[in-house]
Design goal:
It comes from Evansella caseinilytica. Its main location: cytoplasm. GO terms for molecular function: hydrolase activity, acting on ester bonds; nuclease activity. This protein is 50% helix and 25% strand. With 141 residues, the protein is of the alpha/beta class. The chain has a single domain, classed as Nucleotidyltransferase, domain 5, CATH 3.30.420.140.
């Protein structure tokens, strides 16, 4: 069974999925959010869950640098709660501080153009969130 990683923002949702053994994360897509139709966002996630045989979902939780949770973090917590109720799957929140910054640095070092970076940054952030979760799980045994 695979793990789905989500980087939830107000405009997009970056999506990554693990391999069947839970060792590596691969970017899947970036979902364009539907402002007044959140159900459409969840419908696409439902499709991805079924297509990829997902058993667990990881949602990035943006925290302030001092560890507190601001409006973005509260939005992600609410999204995770709705996802948990809708899917009946375990949904874990994972600290995502600096995941987007790290994804941006990686893309810049790979000499990806600014225009292309903008299209894949959320997907790459989801990969980093999910890979961090998978690595942490491996080290915990």
């Amino acid at each position: 069974m695979k793990v789905l990683g989500l980087d939830v923002g107000t405009k997009t949702i970056g999506v990554a999925v693990s391999d069947a053994l839970g060792w590596t994360a691969q970017g899947v897509e970036t979902i364009q959010r539907h402002r007044d139709k959140e159900d459409k966002d969840f419908e696409r996630i439902d499709e991805l869950i079924h297509e990829n045989d997902v058993s667990t979902i990881v949602v990035g939780l943006p925290k302030n640098m001092n560890g507190t949770i601001g409006p973005s973090g509260e939005m992600c917590q609410s999204f995770a709660d709705k996802l948990r109720k809708r899917t009946n799957l375990p949904v874990e929140l994972v600290d995502e501080r600096l995941s987007t910054v790290a994804a941006e640095r990686m893309l810049v070092s790979a000499d990806v153009s600014r225009k292309k970076r903008k299209k894949v940054i959320d997907k790459m952030a989801a990969v980093m969130i999910l890979q961090g979760y998978l690595d942490g799980k491996q080290s915990r045994g």
